[in-house]
């Protein structure tokens, strides 16, 4: 059974930083692409960052230079370091992976950035 558990969200002032983590189980973690999405009320879910098994990374334009995705294949965990946070970054952040063509989501962790 695939399970993704996110942690690290919270309330932070604009300009501040947070580090999110997503612990995965039920998959051969090192072989899987991992991604962070976010969803705000009234907006579509958007892909924020992804990292593949070769550690190649992609980012949505709005977070380039501020966010960094990384992975620890020993701890089966993917991280999202977020800096210079803005109010527009306020969202539920969700971890995602696929296995055998099926997508799996964590429950999400809320990030709220105050002005």
Structural class by sheet pairing and helices = mainly beta
Please count the beta strands (DSSP E, at least 2 residues each): 11
- Please tell me what the overall shape is: globular
Q: Give the oligomer, counting copies of the same chain as homo and different chains as hetero.
A: single chain
Q: List the secondary-structure elements in sequence, H or E.
A: EEEEEEEEEEE
Strand content: over 45%
Describe the structure.
- The structure is a single chain.
- The protein is mostly beta strands.
- The chain is 0% helix and 55% strand.
- Strands 2, 4, 5, 6, 9, 10 and 11 form a seven-stranded mixed β-sheet that branches. Strands 1-3-8-7 form a four-stranded antiparallel β-sheet, with no helix packed on it.
- The radius of gyration is 13 Å and the shape is globular.
- It starts with a strand and ends with a strand.
- The mean pLDDT is 97.
Q: Secondary-structure map with pairings?
A:
Layout: E1 3-7, E2 10-13, E3 18-25, E4 34-39, E5 46-51, E6 57-59, E7 67-72, E8 77-82, E9 91-99, E10 102-105, E11 109-114
Parallel strand pairs: 2-11
Antiparallel strand pairs: 1-3, 3-8, 4-5, 4-9, 5-6, 7-8, 9-10, 9-11
């Amino acid at each position: 059974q695939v399970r993704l558990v996110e942690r690290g969200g919270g309330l932070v002032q604009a300009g501040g930083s947070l580090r999110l983590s997503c612990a995965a189980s039920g998959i051969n973690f090192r072989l899987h692409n991992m991604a962070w999405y976010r969803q705000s009320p009234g907006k579509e879910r958007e892909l924020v960052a992804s990292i593949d098994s070769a550690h190649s990374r992609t980012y949505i334009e709005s977070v380039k230079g501020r966010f960094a995705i990384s992975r620890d294949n020993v701890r089966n965990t993917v991280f999202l370091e977020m800096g210079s946070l803005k109010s527009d970054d306020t969202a539920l952040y969700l971890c995602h992976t696929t296995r055998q063509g099926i997508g799996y989501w964590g429950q999400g962790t809320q990030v709220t950035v105050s002005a």
